[in-house]
Amino acid sequence: MLKVDIITLFPDIFFGPFSESIVARAIDNGSLCVNTVDLRLFAEGKRRQVDDKPYGGGPGMLLMAEPVFKAVEALSSKNSKILLMTPQGRVFNQEMAGVLSNEKHLVIICGHYEGVDERIRESLVDMEVSIGDYVLTSGNLPAMVLVDAVTRLLPGVLGSETSVDEESFSDSTLLEYPQYTRPELYNGMKVPDVLLSGNHGEIAKWRLETAKRRTAERRPDLPADRGRG
Ligand code: ADE
Fold first, then answer.
1. CA 145/CA 163 separation, integer angstroms
2. Ligand 1: distance of its center to the CA of 33 in Å?
3. What pLDDT score does 227 carry?
């Protein structure tokens, strides 16, 4: 079972994505336990301030060190992995999802506003994670993306083990082959004969070839020397 604590200023926005479909089922069957924690609960004073102006001037507000340290200290133990969602982090990929799916406890800090006090990065966080080279308004959606990608790799979450193994990025080098379902003929577009042939050797060969071609066309940046048959 993977336990995830998400430290956020907007705990309620996680309700939708985590209450439907595969993630909700993973929570129901005990593969995943997710808890969203309001950072303001760890802030001091009547205003429960969580952000402040940067020293040295400049635009925007930064998440303050104290409430974030207090929240992480309250939630974590020595077996916890502390993540900060930020566009400055390592870019998330399937391999990282696989590594994180083997952890016991993730504490995810959702960055917000213009940034966070640097001492959070220096002394509190194990890994900074970005979900891509674009800037979102906060780390909340990135945290959802990470939890979703990790959840489907947890044992027992997907119906069949092969659906994880065969898909795009399972070896980080090959996109998935084209797939078709009924009917055989739709608006003049036909399913390739080989898929209807019942010849499993030929089907496997066709799938590997089309996957290789598709990968070379669409993602020439993926390494061509591994896992391509
Ligand atoms: N916060 C804002 N943009 C982000 C991104 N691309 N990845 C992770 N956290 C973010």
1. 19
2. 23
3. 44
159: in domain: no
CB of residue 11 inside a 6 A radius of ligand 1 = no
- Is 135 a member of any domain? yes
13 and 39 share one domain: yes
E-strand stretches of the chain: 2-8, 32-38, 51-52, 62-63, 80-91, 105-110, 115-116, 127-130, 185-186, 189-190
Same structural domain, 74 and 9? yes
The CB of 85 under 6 Å from ligand 1? The reply is yes
The pLDDT, as a whole number, for residue 229 is: 38
The verdict on the CB of residue 139 being under 6 Å from ligand 1 is yes
Q: What is the pLDDT of residue 114?
A: 79
Model confidence over 49-64: pLDDT tens digits? 999 999 999 999 999 9
pLDDT value for 228: 40
Q: What backbone phi and psi angles, to 5 degrees, belong to 217?
A: -70, -45
On the question of pLDDT at 69 being above 60, the answer is: yes
